[in-house]
Amino acid sequence: MADRAPTARELARESVHASILAAARARLTDEGPTQLSLRAVARDVGMVSSAVYRYFPSRDDLLTALLIADYDELGAAVEAADAAAGPRAGARWVAVCRAIRTWSLAHPGDFALLFGSPVPGYAAPRETVEPASRTTLTIVRVVADAQGASASASPSASAGRHGSPVPPTAAPGVVGAAVADGVASLHAFGLDLPEELLLRTLMAWTTVFGVISFELFGHYVGSVSDGAAYFDEVIARLADDLGFAAEFG
Question: What distances in angstroms separate CA 176 from CA 19, 158, 179, 238, 239, one per listed residue?
Fold first, then answer.
């Protein structure tokens, strides 16, 4: 049976819902997530605050909706970049990382909500986990596919940085202990990486977002003169540490 067409009331509600989220996102850019107020958002969309509460009963409900929308938007952009880059892991890696940076620079307030300081008094609910995982899982799949391609080409090749068959470590057993949560998370999504490669992937993931954070919040003044060129150099070195070469188109 064909899906039922939405009613005029449902369409109107969706439109108002979208307007509230758009106004809230603008507030994120202007004021930051800690200052987000339902009353202020209501004024921006020309509604009384009591009307907004019918869509979002609390500030926390609005924050959750924003998190899900932002994570999904970023994830969709990254997944699209990955799909368009072709089959080679090096080209996919560059496309994915650049897509993260492009989206983040275009949405600084949203980036601050997703990856900045936690909003006091707010704890993200479980429903945000799957949207939040989309970008990370795309990165993991690129690395896993690169490992698979490398193993097929040279069965004796080991994952990790070229020329480092014995990786440095802080203490015996530290790698397994450090990435135990990551191993469990990947298994939940039906994925698997050797512990050493997972550690390097986590290092790369946090570095990518750290570099973007420094650029967004003005921490490169006096040190980095070209943010795009520096970012590309960083992701090239990260790819090398993950065992493959970045390919720039």
Answer: 46, 18, 6, 21, 22
**Residues 199 and 143 sit within 8 Å (Cβ to Cβ):** no
Q: Evaluate the CA torsion angle 87, 88, 91, 92 in order and state its sign.
A: positive
Please tell me the least confidently modeled range out of 64-68, 95-99, 117-121.
117-121
Dmax (CA) of the chain = 67
**Amino acid type, 239:** A
The answer on pLDDT for 195 being more than 90 is no
| Rounded Cα distance, 30 and 239, in Å | 35
Per-residue CA distances from 111 to 18, 26, 115, 167, 179 (Å): 19, 12, 6, 33, 25
Rounded alpha-carbon distances, angstroms, from residue 115 to 40, 110, 189, 210? 23, 9, 22, 9
Task: Give residue-wise pLDDT tens across range 25-75.
Answer: 999 888 888 888 899 999 999 999 889 999 999 999 999 999 999 999 999
E strand spans, the chain: none
